[in-house]
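Re: Re: ligand-bound prediction request (bumping)

Still looking for help on this. To restate: I need the protein modeled with zinc ion bound, output as structure tokens. Inputs repeated here so nobody has to scroll up.
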Amino acid sequence: MAWKSKSSRTVPLPKDWWRLRAKRLKMDGHRCVRIREDTGQRCMEKATDVNHIGSPHDHRIEMLESLCSWHHNQETGRQGGSRVRQAKKSVSHPGLAGG
Ligand SMILES: [Zn+2]
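Reply:
Sorry for the wait, this slipped through. Here it is.
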């Protein structure tokens, strides 16, 4: 099955997330606010997602930003996936030598 790896973020969104999201989008004119590295100018693509600038728990309106799908992918890619959790550190149990 082709699961989209979308559920990697487990932080629950607040009940009024849709409201915050809509407000942020409106404030940003429904345009991506990121600065493009290649042009040095604001991206201005159609914003399809609202991202947390700081902690994913921080839902203040000023801590949100509107992103186009491309920039949002950049974000989620960075947080989510490439680096799969390292196999557990070899924690040695001093008293528990197997027997
Ligand atoms: Zn963008």
